[in-house]
Each structure stands twice: as structure tokens, then as C-alpha cells.
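Margin note from the TA: students keep mixing up input and output lines. Inputs are the sequences; the output is the structure of the whole complex. Example:
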Amino acid sequence: MTKQIITVLQLYPKDMNIYGDYGNLLVIQRRLEWYGYDPKVIHYNVGDVFPSDVDIVIGGGGQDSGQEVIHTDLIKIGPQLKALAEKDVPMLMVCGLYQLFGNFFKTLGGKTLTGIGVLDVETHGTHERLIGNIVTNNEEFGDIIGYENHSGQTFLGKNAEPFATVIKGAGNNAKDGYEGARYKNVIGTYLHGSILPKNPKLADFLIHTAVTKKYGDFSTDIVDDLLADLARETASDRPR
Amino acid sequence: MVYMPHPFIIILGKAVRYAARLRGGGSALPGLFVEKISPDFIKQTLGQLPRGVVVISGTNGKTTTTKMVVALLEAHGLKVFTNRTGSNFTRGVAAALLGDIDIKGNLDADIAVLELDEAHAVKFVQAVPPRFSLLLNVMRDQLDRFGEIDATAKMLEKIAIATTNTVVLNREDTRVLTIKDVLKDQKVELFGLSDELLGDFPSDDDMRGESVKKTQRPAASVVLKKYSGNEATYELGGREFSTTLKLNGVYNVFNSAAAIALARAVLGTEMKTDIILATIAVVAPAFGRGEELTVGGKPLELVLVKNPSGFRLGLKSFSPEGYATMIAINDNYADGRDMSWLWDVDFESLSEEGVSQVAGIRAYDMALRLQYDEVTIGHIERDLVTALRQFIDNNADRPKRIYCTYTAMLALRRELGKITKVEIVS
């Protein structure tokens, strides 16, 4: 029997790859394999043709310079990404791409980078770097454990719900206690670590959503997450 | 103005240094003490040196490169002051000075060669402008301390601008190379790799993108042309020279090209190529940088890993075949608290032999990383002392290799010192 294919689109690996967010792709890829599916990964870079058939989209953080390089291209493919979001396609956007999936990012120098507005959030550059181990909580996925490192501070608009509430750490900004944002199955977050290895429930949400959407049901294989549990235990006890 | 440091301060500092040594470790502690009571101490002491100050900075390879530069200059008859301990913060420099000056505050040296952490170097060069600087690379390392990699590159730029004579830059690191464009008053010298070797050095930028063919590069004064086994060929001033090396790992060998380029800039016409080659041939890597110890009659190598590019190069440089492998990952301040970097390293090269022991504070993060590369693991034990014992006992008849972060390396060396000969670093 040929295995069922799930297409994973990774946005801008060339310019937005520098904080270990590759781990997120690897986790999705491997878990799909372990569950018995055939992951097909598309690396989308500036100037590439945007693929028509996509089941999961992930994107990472980058340098400020990386954000500028991809900005024009992202605006160009914005309508396609928006259409996928409306069709309930699961997406995970970390840090830099989380910011640009919002309405805008206003830099400290006063320059405004327009976002693609999938998430109703806005981000303002600050002098303060929010940095360190972070633990948040989401009703559906439980405690989410990772590492944040950003100087842009993000605020939710009326149409965005927070992804999680902060237990330890800063989150979106130093004020309201929220971390990340969610719209339909699109999740934006500041968490590195990488986020998915130590939060397998979140990884399985993306996978489960994509598979049931495409094939109607999901395999019942079980992945052993003991090491993830132990790594979570250590991480949540470490100093900021 | 003649500067006379207060003898009392120096005696006190020396006493603290002695006490700190007795206590074991903590080479920056006495320096902190002197810095507090006499902030001009470093400036005044180093200002006396006839051939000035040389600063070496960058993310990877500072300690081994500094060691090589010191050896090259000493071989040419210079008396060199250096912060040998690898305590590369300003305080470490003050601490090292305390060990070397006489009671009147005089330093018996021609030149100072100092390795400095990027952020501390920026502060340091404001007080003491170096005559020469060598900027090795900018890689993702401890970004939780410095913020973004572009910000780190800016720090190196500040060091270059503060330099009064010559800045030596890595041609193969785009962020370092472009520093030359902002320099007006300084001479610039480059070191580089042949096209053939360039493929062995993926930068963080190329890491997950398609590899970029770098064709049009400016000429470099020292180029590492070939490296295989333990023989290296350099191009120096347009001519090729070969030598055997004690250094291992392609990364250390590239740094030898950097050291030669810097020595060439400092020595000018005094430089003798045969002395350079003879010296480079016998330099051993700095402690924990591919250093080889003997345990139970079998070799045990320590490989320091601090960031994804360093770890990737380590895995590429040393074949796992026939070796038992241990990986020890700590997340103390000096290691960097963020574990994201482990996900930017491919461990598939270890899948054939497996990893015998995973250890350190973040042992489970490392084990989780290996799970996703489907590498088998023998034992996981957070406690380094227990893990080391287990590793040695389980692999008594095999050569061993330990990849470890900075503080894990210090702890392992301390433990290994009890069972074998380990070079003393004061």
C-alpha cells in the first residue's frame, strides 16, 4: 500500500532559519513518518513558485536583515497564505514570521514593515530584549515550554485570540501576560527551543489537523514521548 | 604622565589570585577585585608595551588561535603577554596581568596578545586601542547574551574601527569581510580558504539554504590551500608551503591560517617563513579543543562545542568509527541557556555507531535531539561525574571522544584530572 502524502511547506529556510526552528520541521517530518505517512517537504524561498497543494505551513525566526529580504516576497504570496488560513490549514509561525503574519511591525527607527494580516496583531520594536526560558499555558495543549528572544513587542487586536498565557517569562510583550496569537488553525508564537520537540502535543495538533482534513481519519500509532517529558521537566526548572 | 599603581592594590590583587587558585578555578575573580579599585589598571599597564596590544575576537576558535599567535611571535624572539587561561573577559585580562607584573606594576613584555569575548572587547578597545586586531567569525553562539548575530557583527566592527594599525579579517565569513568597507585609516589583511576547502565550512547562513558558490572573492594574504590527514598547505605571499601539524580538525587548521596572517602583519619584514612553519607544526590545540588525554591506556578526546557551526565542524572533523562517543550539554550562563542550537546540528553521522553516553544538565534535550535523528543512545545521566565513570567503564577497551559545552568541559577535566594527566590551566 502506498503511504498517504502530507505536504509540509517551510517558509524561507534560507533567510529565516537562524534560531534552531529547523527542529520544528524535523519533528513534523519524523512524526509523520513514525505515524506511517509520507511527508513531502517544500522549501519555499524568495522568488520561488508558491505551491498550490499544501497541508501544513511552518516558518521561523530570523535576523532583522532577513525580515527585510523576504518582506516584498511575503507580501506577494500573502493572499495565498491568507486563503490557506481561511481553509483551516494548520500553520506554525515562530518569532520573525509571527510578527510578519500580523498587521505590521514598526521598527525602533520608525520604519513600518507591513504584515500580511493573517493574525490581527501589531508589533513595535523596543530597546528591551525579552529573553530567557519561558513556560506558558494553553487550555488545549497544557503547558508549553520554550525559549524566547525578541525585542519586538506584540499586541493583540480585537480579532486575535491569545495562543497561551504566560506562567514564567515575558511573552508577547512585557505587559499583558499573553503569549502568541491564534486564528483558526494558524498559531503565531515567540517560542524557540525549538518549540515542537518539547511540545509534542502541539506538533500532533498540526499533524492531526492536516491529516484528518485531507484523509478524513488519523492513524492510531503512538509515539514514545518519554524523552520529551523528561526534557520538559528539566527546562521548566531552569533559571530564566 | 607616569603612572604608578598603588603597590597595595597589586599586592592585594596577587593575594586574591593566590587564594582563588587555592580554592580552585575562578581565574576572573582577582581581576574583578583590581578592576573595582583601580579602573585604569589595565590601560596603564598595557599602555607601556613597546609593540602595543593585539586583540583576537570572534565566536569560534579564539583560544587556539591566540595560542598559535603567541607561539609564532615568541618564536621570532618577542616577549609576549597573554591571557592564557581562556578567561576572555576584561577581568580575565586583569587577572592575568596580576600574575605577570612586578610589584611596581611593570610588565616585562614587548607585546600583548589578548583573546576577548566580543562584547567585552568593545569595552576593552575603548580603554586600550589595539594596534592589531584579528576578527575570526560571527556565528550563532550565546545569542541569548548578545541578541542577534548582526548585533555581534557590529561589535566586531567597533573593534576594527578602534584598531590603529592593521585589521586581519576572515574572507570567508561575509559578516566579517564586509567590515573592511567601513575602515578608512587601517590597513586590512585577509585570510581565507581555497575553493576546494570552502565546501567544508558551511556558514550559519548557508546552513539550510542551497549552498552559495562564492566565486569572486578578494585576494587574501594567507590561504589554506589543502588539508588532509595531518598535512596542510598554505599560500603565503603568493607562494605555497606545506607542513605537518599536531592540530586536528579542519577548523583548528583554518585558524592556523588566521594566526599566520596576524603574525605576518605584526612582524612585517621580521617574519621568517621557515620559523612560521616550524612553529605551526608543533602547536597543540588549546585545552578542550580536540585535546587528547589517555585513560586506561586508550585515547580520550575532548571536543568543545559551543554553537551549531562548531558542533557540525567537530562532527565532520572527527570520524566516529571505532570510537565510543559521549555528549555532555550544560546550559549554565557561560554555555548559553538556549537549547535551540542543538536543532541546527545534524547528528546522522553518529547513527551507525550510536552515542554511548548522554550527560549534563540538559542531557534530556540532547537525547531528544538524537531521538529525532534516530541515533541510538546507551545511557542518559545528568550528573557529569557519574556519567563519565559509566562512559569509561562501559568502553574500557575503546578510544573515546566527548563532545561537551564549556562548563561541562571544565567539570569533566576536573574529574579526569583525578585519573589521568591533564594539562594544568591556571
